[in-house]
Write a structure and sequence with these properties.
Two copies of one chain form a homodimer. Chain A is α/β, with parallel strands linked by helices. Chain A folds into three domains: 53 residues, 434 Repressor (Amino-terminal Domain); 131 residues, Response regulator (Rossmann fold), CATH 3.40.50; 139 residues, Rossmann fold, CATH 3.40.50. In chain A, 44% of the residues lie in helices and 15% in strands. Chain A is built from twelve helices and twelve strands. In chain A, the strands form three sheets. Chain A has a six-stranded parallel sheet, with helices on both faces. The first copy, chain A, has a four-stranded parallel sheet with strand order 7-6-8-9, sandwiched between helices. In chain A, strands 10-12 form a two-stranded antiparallel sheet. In chain A, strand 8, helix 11 and strand 9 form a beta-alpha-beta unit. Chain A is elongated and about 90 Å long. The first copy, chain A, starts with 5 loop residues before the first helix and ends in an 11-residue tail after the last strand.
C-alpha cells in the first residue's frame, strides 16, 4: 500500500490540493458539502495528515538541521545527544550532517537544508570557513541560525561556546604551577577560532607567569589524531629543544605524544607533564591517566536548542528578540599525567 | 524575508497550489497563459522549488530516518558515519533519532518519521523491543525498512549484521588457546539478539574444547558501562569462584572489570586474561592494551544505505525484489590483555 496524501484525495475528488488541505485542517472558507466529502474519503482511506501537509498550513517543518565537522568526535556526539534530547521532547526532528571540515561541503549542506525548509540550522564551522554568505542566506530565508563551538565572531546569531581563551589559560597555568617552565603547545589549524583562542590563553599564561614565549614550541596541526601527535612529537624531540610540559588542544593527539615520549625514554609526568583537551572517554583509564579540560557537551546541545526555541517563538509572536551568546566555563580535570606523586 | 512557497505563488495569482506546482514542474495540463504568469512571478520573487513541492510531485522526500539505541557509542557513531557518507553522495538527508533502549520510545519515533514521509527507516532495535507491529507499519506505509546490528530474526526486511555467534566463539576460543579453563562471560540483557548470539558462541567454544559450562560464570548486564563492569566483577570475586579468563561483550565494561581485578591484586593477563568487544578508540593505549573484537561499523552503515537504494530503485521500476541479509565477519584484535609475554 502506498502512502495516502493530500494529492491522492484531491485527485479522487477532482478538487485542488489546497481545498483538501483546508477541509482537513478545518478552515472556514470551504464549501460544507466539499468538506464533508473530503473528510469521509479521508476517513475511509485511513488518512492522517502528513508533515508536508502540516507545512503547507504552518510554514513550519518542525525539522532542524545540525552540521558538525566530525561525527566520531566524542565532544560532538555529546552535543548531538543534548540537541536530540531537547528536540525529541519538543516534537522536533533533527537532520544530522557532517562537513568533514570543508567549507565547500558545508556550503552545499546548508543549501540542501534550506531547500528542505528546516526551521533552524545549528552549525559548528569547518576549519577553513572564511566566507559567510551561505550563513547569511540562512538568516535571510527566515530559518533560525545557531552557531556553536566553532563559531564566527563577526557573524550575528545566537551562539553557544566555551571560554576557549580561559581554557587555554587554566591548562597552561596548571602546568606552570606544577613546575613546568618550557611548555610545548599542540594547537589546531591556523584559522579556527577555537584554536586561536586556546593559543591566546596559553600565551597569556606564559607571559603572566614571566616565562619566555617561544614560537618554536607552538606546533600547528591539521588533523588532531594520535598518529599525528606521535609524529609531531617525534619531530620536535629531534630538534633538541628543551621542554618539560605539553598542552595539547586534543586528548587524542596527546595520547600519541605520550606514546612517543615513552618510546624516547621521557617519563610522564616526571620529565614531561601533559594536559589534553575534551575529557574523552577512557582517558581516565590510561597509564598515566590523562589530565584534561572538560566541556559540558550535552548541556551545550540543550542550550543550542533552547536558544533556537526562544528565537522561533519570539518571531512567531512578533515580539522583540535579541541574539544571545552563552559561554560555558571549562573545567580542569587533574589526573596523573601532569602531577608528580599523584594520588587518587 | 520569509520563505517563498508554492502557496505564496498560488495566493498571489489566485489559483490552486496544484496548478502552480504543475506549472513550475513543466506539466502539460496547464493553460499556457497561466504557466507564463506562474513562471514570471516565480522568477521575480527568486523562487526555487522546495523539498515539500518536490514531494508533492515525486512522493519521495529524499529523507531517511535512522534510529539507534545510543548516540555516544563509538560503534553506532561509525555506522552513522557510513550512512551519512553514502546518503550525502546520493543527495539524501538523514534524520537521526535515539531510542535510548526503550521500545515505547522507539515506537513513538517510528510514528513520527512516518508522518514526515521518510523514504526509509534504518533501525537498530531497543533491548526490550518484542512487539514488532510498529515496524510492520513502516513496510505497509511504503517506506523501506532496513534493520542493522540489533535486529529481529522474525521480521522480514533487509538486514546488516555481524556474525555475533562467530564473534562469541572466536573470542572464547582465543582465551582457551591462551590457556584459560574457567572463563567468565559478561553478557548483555536477556532479550537482545546480539547478546543471545554472542553467548551461544561462547557456550559453543566452551563445549567444543571440552571445558565445563557453568551458568554461575555468565553475568547479565543491563548497562554495559565501566562502573557496572567494576561492580559486577567485584561481586563475582567475592563469590570465590575459580576463574582465569573474561569475555566481555563490551570494551567499556571490560575496562571497569580490569580496574577491579587490579585493585584485587589479580594480574592481567598473568592471572586473568581479558577480551572485550567493539575495538573502542583508545583501547589500544590502555595498560595492558585490550584484546577485542572489531566490527566494521562504517562499512556496515554504507551497506545499509546500498540495500535501501536497491530496494527503493527496484520498487520504483516495479522490478522483482528480494530482501538481503549481509553478514560481516568479526575480526579478532589481539593485544596485551589476553596473551602472556605479548610483543607488539
Amino acid at each position: 500500500m502506498s502512502k495516502i496524501t493530500l494529492t491522492h484525495l484531491a485527485k479522487k475528488l477532482k478538487i485542488s490540493v489546497a481545498t483538501v488541505s483546508k477541509a482537513i485542517n478545518g478552515y472556514a472558507d470551504v464549501n460544507i458539502e466539499t468538506k464533508k466529502k473530503v473528510l469521509n474519503l479521508a476517513k475511509s482511506l485511513n488518512f492522517t495528515p502528513n508533515a508536508q501537509a502540516a507545512f503547507l498550513r504552518t510554514k513550519k517543518t518542525k525539522v532542524i538541521g545540525v552540521i558538525i565537522p566530525h561525527i566520531s568526535h566524542p565532544f560532538f556526539s555529546n552535543i548531538v545527544k543534548g540537541i536530540l534530547n531537547s528536540a525529541d521532547k519538543n516534537g522536533y526532528l533533527v537532520i544530522l550532517l557532517r562537513s568533514n571540515e570543508s567549507y565547500v561541503h558545508e556550503k552545499k549542506l546548508v543549501e540542501r537544508l534550506l531547500k528542505h525548509n528546516v526551521d533552524g540550522i545549528f552549525i559548528s564551522l569547518a576549519h577553513d570557513t572564511y566566507d559567510l554568505s551561505h550563513l547569511e542566506e540562512v538568516k535571510k530565508s527566515g530559518a533560525v541560525l545557531i552557531q556553536f563551538d566553532k563559531i564566527s565572531k563577526i557573524l550575528n546569531s545566537s551562539k553557544v561556546v566555551i571560554d576557549d581563551r580561559r581554557a587555554g589559560y587554566i591548562a597552561t597555568e596548571h602546568l606552570i604551577k606544577n613546575g613546568c617552565k618550557n611548555i610545548v603547545h599542540f594547537r589546531g589549524p591556523l584559522l579556527a577560532q577555537i584554536s586561536i583562542d586556546r593559543f591566546l590563553g596559553y600565551k597569556k599564561a606564559i607571559e603572566e607567569y614571566n616565562l619566555t614565549f617561544d614560537k618554536n614550541k607552538v606546533i600547528l596541526f591539521d588533523h588532531l589524531t594520535d598518529q599525528e601527535g606521535y609524529r609531531k612529537m617525534n619531530e620536535f624531540i629531534s630538534k633538541k629543544i628543551n621542554f618539560d610540559g605539553l598542552f595539547s588542544i586534543s586528548d587524542y593527539a596527546a595520547t600519541g605524544a605520550i606514546e612517543c615520549l615513552k618510546k624516547n625514554n621521557f617519563h610522564v609526568p616526571n620529565d614531561v607533564k601533559v594536559i589534553g583537551f575534551s575529557n574523552w572517554i577512557l582517558t581516565d583509564k590510561l597509564t598515566p591517566s590523562l589530565t584534561t579540560i572538560d566541556h559540558p557537551g550535552v548541556l551545550m546541545g540543550k542550550t543550542c536548542f533552547n536558544l533556537f526555541l526562544n528565537e522561533i517563538t519570539s518571531k512567531a509572536k512578533k515580539v522583540k528578540f535579541k541574539y544571545e551568546k552563552k559561554t560555558f566555563t571549562p573545567k580542569l580535570i587533574i589526573r596523573e599525567s601532569s602531577v608528580l606523586n599523584y594520588q587518587v
